[in-house]
Amino acid sequence: MAQQMLNEKGILPDDFYQQSFSNWISAQNAKSNEDREVNPLELARQLGADF
């Protein structure tokens, strides 16, 4: 699976193995910015985050 992620997504094996599988599944299932009701970055800025 790590080789497939390197080939398809450019994710290095060390990065792949250092992440929990549940985090990886969550990231793969995340909606794109266009499909979200609210852009999380904009919401954080509205709440006072300073990036």
Structure report:
With 51 residues, the protein is mostly helical. It has one domain. Helices cover 57% and strands 0% of the residues. The protein contains 4 helices and no strands. The longest helix has 9 residues. It starts with a helix and ends in a 5-residue tail after the last helix.
Distance between the termini: 34 Å
- In angstroms, what is the radius of gyration? 15 Å
List low-confidence stretches: none
Bin the strand percentage: under 5%
Query: Helix tally?
Result: 4
| Number of distinct beta strands | 0
Largest sheet: none
Shape: elongated
Short overview:
The chain is mostly helical and 51 residues long. It has helices at 2-9, 13-17, 21-29, 40-46.
List keywords for this structure.
51 residues, mainly alpha, 57% helix, elongated
Question: Helix and strand layout, with pairings?
Answer:
Elements: H1 2-9, H2 13-17, H3 21-29, H4 40-46
